[in-house]
Design brief:
This protein is of the alpha/beta class. The protein is built from ten helices and eleven strands. Helix 2 runs parallel beside helix 3. This is GTP cyclohydrolase 1 type 2 homolog.
Length: 248
């Protein structure tokens, strides 16, 4: 598949142009013009790049790419090391941030909800990135935390009364603890995201709405993998998902 064809397809699939994002979405680093093997991963870290090079990838597709708003524009240090790996190996780097969070089927929130068995029933927040839904059945906040731990393979942070019965859930993957107010306003029993801030504890205790911080990386593994699997089915590309462990 031509690199430009893949970029145009992904931009359309994920509706990239409609988002005002913190970084450029799409092809961030140009490589070879033909793609047969694509590696997906959460973040374009040096470890992922090395693994993709070892796997013989023509392109890497990630959620967290480069060139974030406000970052040092100089190509030195860590940035130099990462870009050098890509340019020397002639590998394309595609990155989609908010467009990947938002997609109704392949996105991070859609896929996390599917993994956790949540039944979506609404959206909230900027660009409708936050989701609401319900559990298959009522359970305590403690039991939900245990369920999340079992699915994601890591112990989450659980704030609130562990014995409280919960049924309605709000969620937004990654660093979306700032959407907690919106989830409370949406009337959910518990809100799940990746991280927590100092004030998250106070909001959980004072609102009575439980909070689960399940890990930024852990909650955002599923969307990028789903897009890779979609590309493999749609175009016959060889796809490899590589998970670089991250405790955050």
């Amino acid at each position: 598949m031509k690199t430009k064809e893949l970029e145009l397809y992904l931009n359309g699939l994920l509706e990239a142009p409609r988002f005002k994002d913190y970084c450029p979405n799409g092809l961030q680093v140009q490589g070879r013009p033909e793609i047969t093997h694509i590696v997906t991963g959460v973040t374009a870290s040096a470890a992922l790049l090395d693994a993709a090079i070892e796997a013989g990838a023509d392109a890497i597709l990630v959620h967290h790419g480069y060139f974030w708003r406000g970052e040092d524009p100089r190509v030195v240090g860590q940035k130099h090391g990462r870009l050098r790996r890509l340019l020397v190996s002639d590998i394309n780097l595609f990155a989609y941030h908010l467009p990947l969070d938002s997609h109704p089927e392949l996105g991070n929130n859609a896929q996390l909800g599917r993994e956790l068995g949540l039944q979506p029933n609404g959206r909230f927040g900027d660009d409708q990135l936050g989701w609401t839904g319900t559990l298959p059945q009522r359970m305590t906040l403690r039991q939900l935390g245990e369920h999340v731990a079992g699915v994601l393979g890591r112990e989450p942070l659980v704030l609130g009364n562990p014995d409280r019965s919960v049924y309605s859930v709000g969620w937004c993957t990654g660093g979306a603890q700032g959407y907690f107010d919106g989830a409370v306003a949406a009337g959910v029993d518990v809100y799940l995201s990746g991280e927590a801030s100092e004030q998250t504890t106070h909001l959980a205790l004072e609102s009575g709405v439980g909070y689960i911080g399940a890990g930024h990386h852990a909650t955002e593994r599923y969307g990028i993998r789903a897009v890779g699997e979609h590309l493999a089915q749609q175009f016959g590309l060889h796809h490899t998902f590589i998970d670089i462990p991250n405790p955050v």
